[in-house]
Amino acid sequence: MIIYSESFHVEYPLEKEWIDWVKNTLIPEMYEIQIFTKVIFSKVISHPDESGCTYSLQYYAANKKVLEDFYKNHSDRFAQLLFHKFGTRVLPFKTELELLESFEF
Length: 105
Description:
The protein has helices at residues 15-33, 64-73, 75-86, and strands at residues 2-11, 38-44, 52-61, 90-98.
C-alpha cells in the first residue's frame, strides 16, 4: 500500500473557502478517477504559523504502479485546478509513503 500525502499551506482568509472546495470539489473529483481506495483529511496542529494553516490529504493507492498512473494521467489537472482557484495563496507539497504495517489499539 502506498500513501500519497499532499500537504497544503493555506492563508487564513481562505481557510473556510479552501476546506469547502476540498470537500465539495477536490475529493469528489479524486473519487471519480478511481485511483485511490481511501483518503484522510487532516489539519496539522503541531506547527502553528502566523501566515496560515496547514492541512494534509493522504490518499491510499494499492501500489506504486497505481500512483504512477495518477502522476501520468491526472496529477497535472489537479494541480491546475488548485492553482486556478487559489493561485499562490495555497501552496502544496507532496510526500510518498509506503505503508509497512498498521496497528490499532
